[in-house]
Design a protein that fits this description.
The structure is a single chain. 21% of the residues lie in helices and 47% in strands. It is α+β, with helices and mostly antiparallel strands and 158 residues long. The strands form 2 sheets. It has a 4-stranded antiparallel sheet with strand order 6-5-1-7, with no helix packed on it. A hairpin with a 2-residue loop joins strand 5 and strand 6.
C-alpha cells in the first residue's frame, strides 16, 4: 500500500467523525442545571415621531473635485448655492464638451415636532435552563413550572 493512502484514509475518517459529532445532535432532555435565565411577559410602548423641514438650501456637488483630492470616486464637496434668478435657460451642453459632472439637490434640516405613543409591543415570557450532560452544555427552553422547580447543581429531567 502506498504511503499516502493511510494518511488520506485517516483524514477521511476524522472528517466523518467530526461531522457526525458536530451535526444533528438532539437537544438535551436531562442533565445537571448549571444556570438559569428568564423573564416574565412584558410590554413596551411604541412611538412615532413627526418632523418638519427647515433651513432648506440647494447644494451643488462636484464629484471630480473630490476624486482628484482624495483619490476616490463618487461623492463630492457640497457648497450652498442661492436660488438663481428666473431667466431663460441655456441649451444643455453636449456630453462630449462637459468635463465636470455636477449635481444639484435640495437639502433641509429636520426638526422633530411631535413624539407620540402609538401602541404597545408585547414580549412573551421566556424561561431557559443551562444543562450539562457528559461534557455537553446547552441552553434549553422550558416552561415556568420546570424553571421554578429547577435548582442549580441538581439533576433534572425535562
Amino acid at each position: 500500500m502506498p504511503a499516502g493512502r493511510p494518511i488520506a484514509l485517516a483524514a477521511a475518517v476524522a472528517t466523518a467523525l467530526t461531522l457526525l459529532t458536530a451535526c444533528g445532535h438532539e437537544p438535551l432532555k436531562h442533565g445537571t442545571v448549571k444556570d438559569k435565565r428568564g423573564h416574565s411577559a412584558y410590554r413596551t410602548p411604541t412611538y412615532t415621531d413627526k418632523y418638519r423641514n427647515t433651513n432648506c438650501r440647494t447644494v451643488v456637488t462636484n464629484a471630480l473635485t473630490l476624486s482628484s483630492l482624495t483619490g476616490r470616486t463618487g461623492g463630492g464637496f457640497s457648497k450652498p448655492k442661492s436660488a438663481p434668478p428666473a431667466k431663460k435657460a441655456a441649451p444643455p451642453a453636449s456630453p462630449k464638451k462637459q468635463k465636470h459632472s455636477r449635481t444639484t439637490k435640495q437639502v433641509c434640516d429636520r426638526i422633530r415636532v411631535s413624539h407620540r405613543r402609538t401602541g404597545w409591543h408585547w414580549n412573551p415570557a421566556h424561561w431557559e435552563l443551562k444543562l450539562k450532560q457528559s461534557g455537553r452544555t446547552e441552553w434549553v427552553t422550558v416552561n415556568k413550572t420546570t424553571w421554578d422547580r429547577a435548582r442549580i447543581n441538581h439533576k433534572i429531567k425535562i
